TrEMBL record:
PANTHER family: TRNA PSEUDOURIDINE SYNTHASE PUS10 (PTHR21568:SF0). The keyword Coiled coil applies. The gene is Pus10. It comes from Grantiella picta. The lineage of its organism: Eukaryota, Metazoa, Chordata, Craniata, Vertebrata. This is tRNA pseudouridine synthase Pus10. Residues 113-287 form the Pus10 N-terminal eukaryotes domain. The keyword Zinc applies.
Length: 533
């Protein structure tokens, strides 16, 4: 059973007299009953009034009649001024007269709370909850649970500190302890109140692990004015930042409050805080779904299609890309804000990807729709394939973020097979290239190719050609099938890149060689799982 005791009387009286709302008073009395905070504001005010009227000579506690587990905040260490525990066990101390309870109630009723700036008043009411839920419904998200987050005005930390220092001084005068860590945090109390209302209105449970987030951003017009003294006392804590309208961010204010001395704070700010001129404003009500990940394999049949948009000096070179041909359908079906494309390696614009294709994954950011059956994914795959003859997609499926790591492992650790059409300046016969078939585990030193030096760091990379198989075509052409370590630059292995790749086909044949066509025949990564047709 949650209750207030005689030791709470000076806290209740002080805070009521200075314009604190009933719920904040409960917080500073370290009341941990979640249900109690959900009582109507006026009922709580009456309970506190009755508490103050109670005969202080009685040693019995005045119970606020709620069955609930005890406060979870167990004091681990004694406060500075004494060893009384959190739940006020032991003798009830005689305290000075609390004063007129009616006057205290009248001073607090109808005012904006001097500690929470109305968060635990106006924004706990049914009208605000309905406003939040209307916003959620209009956003048209799929979700089966939600997590609620709240961003508070930075000066609430200042007011919280001021209230605590005022209460601390009052308790010290009475020889009673008050540990700051025992006070129920504003965000926690607010969620205790708002969670059940949102759950009932939305018809789904609140879940701290949910991927669907409902967030409210509160702002207050007096933030800069109230925090200005901190910038004077702790100027190092406030640095102008890009995309920030004010230097008084929450983290900067908290940092300054940790740094400022108590006596300096007391000189510049009233403790407890004075009543504010304005109520908080719910600046933003937003929804966001956690990212959804879709994976598959793609084949690329065009020699004029880049994997990702090809833009040079701000100018687009080709009209489309593999990434766009796939993602435009996913974006439309999942109703996402944006996407991030990744794959197990990449091919050049003029290289085809054949065989079972190249593994890819797409992160869909803030999707409105998240639930798809296997049949729906098949239809989506077919829609992608029907839209273009340049690519085909297979094994399209929903995956987890962690599963994508298996695809990235294959970029350097797995093998890939290629087919290259090669030209030589000097005439060749079958016997001139036959020896290539006998070369196994050929080690290369590849300096970063000139063609990618603008986007890759200069380095010498050791790569391995595991096997080669040649097919003679005519005196100046042959096809070479290669199985290589992932990450090998095949074009440079053929023509040598002005000696930057050693050895190369040209040096092995003792003549000039160049590559005319290149196909990726397989990417040997066992991911994503193969799906039945």
């Amino acid at each position: 059973m949650s209750s207030l005791t005689e030791k709470d009387r000076p806290i209740v009286q002080l805070l009521l007299n200075t314009g604190t709302c009933p719920r904040c008073i409960l917080r500073f009395c370290c009341v941990g009953s979640q249900v109690l905070y959900r009582h109507p504001h006026q009922d709580l005010m009456k309970e506190l009034q009755e508490f103050l009227k109670n005969n202080q000579d009685k040693e019995d506690t005045v119970s606020l009649d709620v069955a609930d587990p005890p406060c979870k905040r167990i004091r681990l260490e004694q406060g500075e001024e004494g060893a009384d525990d959190l739940h006020h066990n032991g003798a009830i101390l005689q305290i000075p007269s609390a004063g007129n309870g009616n006057a205290a109630m009248e001073s607090s009723a109808g005012k904006v709370c001097n500690v929470c700036l109305g968060i635990l008043q106006e924004f706990c009411e049914a009208d605000f909850v309905k406003k939040v839920c209307q916003k959620v419904r209009s956003a048209d998200y799929q979700f089966t649970s939600f997590v609620f987050s709240v961003s508070l005005p930075p000066q609430l930390s200042v007011r919280e500190r001021a209230a605590w220092l005022g209460v601390k001084q009052e308790m010290r005068n009475l020889g009673l302890p008050l540990a700051k860590d025992d006070i129920v945090q504003l965000k926690e109390a607010y969620k205790w109140i708002i969670h059940p209302q949102l759950s009932e209105e939305l018809g789904v449970p609140a879940d701290g692990k949910s991927l669907f987030e409902v967030s409210v951003v509160f702002a207050h017009p007096e933030t800069d004015e109230e925090c200005h003294f901190l910038a004077t006392a702790c100027p190092d804590c406030f640095k102008p930042a890009k995309n920030k309208q004010s230097v008084f961010t929450r983290m900067a204010v908290i940092k300054a409050l940790e740094k400022i001395k108590e006596e300096d704070f007391l000189k510049h700010y009233p403790c407890p805080p004075s009543s504010p001129k304005n109520l908080c404003d719910a600046l933003e009500i937003e929804c966001n779904n956690g990212a959804v990940f879709v994976a598959g394999r793609y084949n690329k049949y065009s020699r004029n299609l880049p994997q990702t948009p090809w833009i040079i000096d701000g100018e687009r070179k080709l009209e489309s890309s593999v990434e766009e041909l796939i993602s435009e359908h996913l974006m439309a079906e999942f109703k996402a804000d944006s996407f991030n494309f990744s794959s197990s390696g990449r091919e050049d614009v003029d290289v085809r990807t054949l065989g079972n294709g190249r593994p890819f994954a797409i992160e869909l950011v803030n999707p409105r729709r998240i639930h798809f059956t296997a049949e729906e994914m098949k239809r989506l795959q077919q829609a992608i394939n029907d839209s273009s003859d340049k690519i085909q997609v297979r094994d399209l499926q929903l995956v987890t973020r962690s599963a994508i790591g298996r695809m990235k492992e294959g970029e350097e650790e797995k093998t890939k097979t290629y087919s290259a059409l090669i030209w030589t300046d000097k005439a060749i016969q079958r016997e001139d290239i036959a020896f290539l078939d006998d070369i196994k585990e050929l080690k290369l030193d590849q300096k970063t190719p000139l063609r990618v030096l603008h986007r890759r760091p200069l380095a010498v990379r050791c790569r391995v050609i595991h096997t080669m198989r040649s097919e003679y075509i005519d005196e100046h052409h042959f096809r070479l099938h290669l199985k290589t370590q992932a990450g090998t630059y095949i074009k440079e292995f053929v023509h040598g890149d002005f000696g930057r790749t050693k050895p190369n086909i040209g040096s092995l044949l003792n003549r000039t060689a160049d590559i005319l066509e290149l196909d990726v025949e397989s990417v040997d990564v066992d991911w994503p799982p193969t799906l039945a047709d």
